[in-house]
Structure prediction request, 317 residues.
Amino acid sequence: MRQIGTLQTQAQADRFTAFLITQGISAVVEPDANWWTIWVRDEDQVPPARDALEEFRRNPDDARYQGVIRTAQAVLQEEAKRREQARKNVVTTSARSGQAGLQAAPLTTVVIGLCVILFVMSGFGRGGGSAPLRTLMFCDVRHRQAANWDETRLADRLIDIRQGQWWRLITPIFLHGDVLHLLFNMIMFHIFARTIEARKGAGALGAMILVIALASNAAQGLAPATWGTLSGGPFFLGMSGVVYGLMGYLWLKTVYDPGSGMYVNPGTVVFLLGWMTIGLTGVFRDAMPMANLAHVCGLLAGMALGYISSPGRGLYR
Prediction:
């Protein structure tokens, strides 16, 4: 607030302050020894308020100052009502947003539910010969029992896909090996997928999942078995490739399209990149085999989608 001057009596100070309020200038009066000090809240309104004070001092009994206290009270009451209504609107909007949030991600919910159901049906990840694992993995695990089948041969890895079972290029993402594997992937998937679905819709999220799943699964399923920690093979499962892809998409959106409303916490990015790096070192290769190539390719696919869909980049260039 800025002080604009003083008046000798409270009656004058109250009347002049009321006049300023009727003119749209927010002001208050305070006692100061034998004077009454006028304060204006808005810095930009100080010059016109000072001019008005000079005019008031020249003729404080002018007709335009009559009845201003009643008018100012009405103005203040109206402003109070508007503020109260605005506060109620904010509360109502927040409540509606909360309710909408619960309904804004149906595809995310369906995918998580499907993963949980298949996890139970597969014997909590331990049923190697269960129908879900046989039907949905990159290739049927029963082929291992065939004497002439070799998982290092590309043709043998594609044995089921070449027979028309194209869904196997996607469906390994819905399978998980144990409870921790499922929980970690579902928590991360929920965080990223819900953000995207709320902003872009279920169709866009579904297309994104398919593209990332195809890229990460194909890389993991077809890569040679001689690439160290990036070796490929047909027996892999999990949503982690898609999780890394969705994170990559949000990461690039955060950098190149901040106006999209899609954002990923830097700490989450650092954590997941750190975990991926640990996997690439092979530290947990025996205790916790990781589909590292699926992680890397999923991340790159998601980053590419985020880049080309950002203003000034890729398709928008």
